[in-house]
Amino acid sequence: IVEQHLPHIHIIATGGTIAGKLSGDGHGYDAGQVGIDVLLESVPELRNYAELDYEQFCNIGSQNMNEQIWLNLAKRINVVLDDDTYDAVVVTHGTDTMEETAFFLNLTTHTQKPIVLVGSMRASDDPEADGPANLLMAVKTMPELANTWYYLGCDEWNHDRKDAALADWRKAVELNPKHALALRCIGFALSHPGTY
Asked: Are the CB atoms for 58 and 101 separated by under 8 Å?
């Protein structure tokens, strides 16, 4: 019997809607309110797909991202992925500045290991929260992402069209694998096919 090797993934939590909580008045939500430990507890099956370590890097709405946070995040990712025991990094992130963060990391990290930014469109305590499924999909697809760089994943990753979206994703990355400027938000791709 061959023992299955699970990828060793380090999750870096930064807040965002994926870590948000619904407002008490029932209108809207507050981003960056839930710790990564709570989010991971909602997805116990993650351990079936990867060996996981995690840290709470910050817990903010991504509209509050700034140059200093980006620099510190890039430095932290470089340290983690310089460690040969890690295969990839997943960054939980708000959707407001997810693409900007991914672009910045593309310029400032020095690795060929996958870095996945994952977020959600609904708060963590929303009855239809999409964050847990998005996080699970990010971890489950990690082996497919070997030797590529940056991916964005958000709302509706768990829908039936995910296979088509992932194929589109891979095609875009193949067009420019070195710089990985094929940054995709899966939910956007599903909702607005053909508009990038």
From this structure: no
Q: Which residues of 117-150 are buried (b: 16+ CB within 10 A; e: fewer)?
A: bbbbbbbbebeebbbbbbbbbbbebbeebeebbb
Half-sphere exposure of 163 (CA within 13 A, CB side): 1
Question: Which pTM was predicted?
Answer: 0.78
Give 132's strand partners: none
Catalytic residue among 14, 17, 95, 109: 17
Is position 17 annotated as part of the catalytic site? yes
Q: What is the pLDDT of residues 141-175, one digit of tens each?
A: 776 666 554 555 555 444 444 454 455 445 544 54
Which residues, 6 or more positions from 69, have their beta carbon under 8 angstroms from its beta carbon? 14, 58, 60
